[in-house]
Amino acid sequence: MRQFREPETQWDQHRPQGHPRPREPRLPDMELKARPSDGNQSNEGLRGKLQEALRQDLNLRGYGLEGNVIDGTARVQGVVDTLAEKLYIRELVSTIPGILGYEDGVSISTDGAITDSQVEMEISEELGLDPVLGGNVGVEVCDGIAYLMGKVSSKDAEVLAMRLASTARGIVSVVSQLQVDPYLESP
Predict the structure, then answer these.
(1) What's the CA gap between 164 and 149, in Å, rounded?
(2) Structure-model confidence comparison of residues 88 and 8, the more confident one
(3) Whole-number Å distance between alpha carbons of 167 and 95
(4) The domain at 116-180 falls in which architecture?
(5) pLDDT tens across 11-52, in order?
């Protein structure tokens, strides 16, 4: 006869019976404290540094992001407005000494309904105004993914175009289909 066990979290309720990867059992607090230290900073100490960095950063503190550290790997959860902010979180976390890895739990959401054509127009304006890109870069947006097309004079110009596109609200990913042409005349 099979024993019924109470789910530990709401997510366990959705696992079918006989799921090949059952949830790992939780260790009692005493067993967690008894684990040997690997010489690195404690997870709790790193978690404090991570939370402090998220709360003090002028670009992120308004979002109320939550960070946790397990075995040296940081995980940040919450919602931001743009892809650029989501990418910035990864950069910020990588500057914290003792953090060995990063798991992204951040979502991108806008406050209102924004269409692909509105986002496309916003990105087109930004790309057209940049003197380095010289109006040689176009964009098409489909389901929140910005596809950049055209020619740029260098890899740095391609990175610039991708960064500009990632700042638009509603963009979840940027795909470069740009060709790098070093003989392209810059304006």
Answers:
(1) 14
(2) 88
(3) 22
(4) 2-Layer Sandwich (3.30)
(5) 444 444 544 444 444 444 433 343 444 444 688 999 999 999
| Backbone torsions φ then ψ of 26, nearest 5 degrees | -75, 140
What average pLDDT does this structure show over 127-140?
90
Average pLDDT, the chain: 81
CA distance 15 to 8: 12
CA 133, CA 111: separation in Å to the nearest integer? Answer: 30
**pTM, two decimal places:** 0.67
- Give the Cα separation of 105 and 78 in Å (integer): 7
Cβ contacts of residue 155 below 8 Å, gap of 6+?
180
Widest CA span of the chain, in angstroms?
Answer: 77
Map out the domains of the chain as residue ranges: 40-109, 116-180
Q: Report the pLDDT value the prediction gives residue 134, as an integer from 0 to 100.
A: 78
Q: Which fold has domain 40-109?
A: Histidine-containing Protein; Chain: A; (3.30.1340)
What is the secondary structure of 128-186 as a DSSP string?
HH-TTTTT-EEEEEETTEEEEEEEESSHHHHHHHHHHHHTSBT--EEEEEEEE-TTSPP
